[in-house]
Specification:
about 475 residues, 14 helices, four-stranded parallel beta sheet, Four Helix Bundle (Hemerythrin (Met), subunit A), four-stranded antiparallel beta sheet, alpha/beta, Rossmann fold, 15 strands
């Protein structure tokens, strides 16, 4: 393959060579469902969705695992404060996460395991670590001994002597070293019995880091191609995952990819800081496809500063692409069929080169806009051959990015085909009435229908090919 990706462990861009020819295995850390997701939470899902689509376009078989952390300290605390069972709180927010993934057009994962469903695998991994001398138990807790693993800190380029206790660990007399981290947490007084499982070390629940190691091994095997997640997961989460998995005898991930943050006011978007934009709320004021464009167009490793102005600019840029696709599709041809495969047309070399260069979406999106400019010129000149060629190219490129306007995901009315069909039918009926008024030369009535549609956000345009309409903002 010609694909090159920035590997966090190597701190360099590397040629990507799958472990098994023709197959790619990916594990991406999903959300801890302590609350509904904001756009900073879901940026990882879009970044790795583009990677997955690119690999699929290249003809590779992709196994994509995205986990759900459905039990942890924050979930228990927030559920208790709300007066609801922790599992009900977790499930409600898991549904909100799924809703966010779906509304932004991410392909569903191959498997989406929950932490609570994989306690036996976690217990087995702890037992291996204890047997190998990398873990120890104490009063119901089990800790990983960081000094027993010489490679600890290599993922993030840190030396053990320079490290302080991680924020998610508790320093107490049961630890041999304050930097040791919890593999298993014994049940504390006041915690619900339903949030604990029986183990050889007593009842309790898994440590956060252990979950992903156990689930990655179960679904992808002891060694797999690529581990991904947000930039903030590099340490301690991914450093700890790598240490415990390799200490347990696994090769674990061969490449590590991390996406950048979404910031607001210069700070990382965070519930604790109160500077969030919930996905459920943002998609009420902008179309989901425009939000996807906003999050996909920048390079996945860059920081995105969230502002309403930047979101509006992204929406306007996407609508320029969408307008060409819809106008060109009316000229006919296989490239203009809604839902037709995006891969039917060849991709421009510049687009391929951009994505092969560490998923360079800014350069790839620029290639799309250049093709649209040529296509609009051809539309104005009536050059149908060029229009058809550019339409096929644009749709193929946007399909890889998950942004093809003719994909049923982005049909009028969102991703509910019934609503899309109803909208199309009602607008079509209004346009038939307008055409009848024009035929009988009742131009005031025809103009009134056009104005009423315009007030509802439906722009009507009369062209030599007939009347067309599109939604405006």
């Amino acid at each position: 393959m010609s694909l090159r990706l920035y590997d966090t462990a190597a701190r360099a861009v590397r040629d990507f060579t799958p472990l098994r020819a023709g197959q790619v295995s990916i594990y991406v850390c999903g959300l801890t469902v302590q609350g509904p997701p904001h756009i900073g939470h879901v940026r990882f899902a879009l970044a790795f969705d583009v990677l997955r689509r690119w690999l699929l376009h290249r003809g590779l078989e992709v196994t994509y695992i995205r986990n759900v952390t459905d039990v942890d300290d924050k979930i228990l605390a927030k559920a208790d404060a709300a007066g609801v069972p922790w599992w009900a709180w977790a499930y409600e927010n898991e549904r909100a996460a799924t809703r966010a993934y779906d509304v932004l057009g991410t392909l569903p994962p191959t498997y989406e395991p929950r932490a609570t469903g994989h306690v036996p695998e976690m217990v087995e991994m702890i037992e291996r670590l204890i047997e190998r001398g990398h873990a120890y138990a104490g009063d119901g807790d089990v800790y990983f001994d960081v000094r027993s693993f010489p490679g600890y800190g290599e993922l993030t380029g840190q030396k053990l002597a320079d490290l302080q206790p991680a924020a998610d660990t508790e320093t107490d007399d049961r630890k041999r070293d304050p930097r040791d981290f919890a593999l298993w947490k014994g049940t504390k007084p006041g915690e619900p019995d339903t949030a604990s499982w029986a183990t050889p070390w007593g009842r309790g629940r898994p440590g956060w880091h252990l979950e992903c190691s156990a689930m990655a091994e179960k679904y992808l095997g002891p060694e797999f191609d690529l581990h991904g997640g947000g930039l903030d997961l590099r340490f301690p989460h991914h450093e700890n995952e790598r240490a415990q998995s390799q200490a347990a005898g696994d090769g674990f991930a061969r490449y590590w990819l991390h996406n950048g943050w979404v910031t607001m006011g210069g700070e990382k978007m965070s519930k604790s800081l109160g500077n969030t934009a919930l996905v459920d709320e943002v998609v009420q004021r902008v179309r989901p496809v425009e939000l996807r464009y906003y999050l996909v167009a920048p390079h996945y490793r860059s920081t995105i500063e969230f502002t309403e102005g930047a979101l509006a600019e992204a929406g306007a840029a996407y609508r320029r692409l969408e307008s060409f696709v819809r106008k060109a599709a009316e000229r006919g041809g296989s490239a203009g069929r809604a839902g037709s495969p995006a891969g039917e047309s060849p991709l421009p070399e510049a687009f391929t080169a951009a994505l092969d260069d560490d998923l360079g979406t800014p350069a790839a999106v620029a290639v799309v806009h250049e093709a649209v400019t040529r296509g609009n010129t051809a539309l104005a000149e009536g050059n149908d051959a060029v229009v058809t060629a550019e339409l096929g190219s644009v749709r193929a490129m946007l399909g890889v990015l998950g942004l093809d306007p003719l994909d049923p995901q982005w049909a009028v009315g969102g991703h509910d085909p019934r609503l899309a069909a109803a909208t199309d039918g009602l607008v079509g009926l209004a346009l038939e009435q307008r055409a009848a008024a024009r035929a009988r030369k009742d131009y005031p009535a025809a103009d009134a229908i056009r104005d009423q549609l315009g007030a509802l956000g439906v722009q009507v345009e009369d062209t030599p090919q007939g009347t067309r309409w599109e939604l405006t903002t």
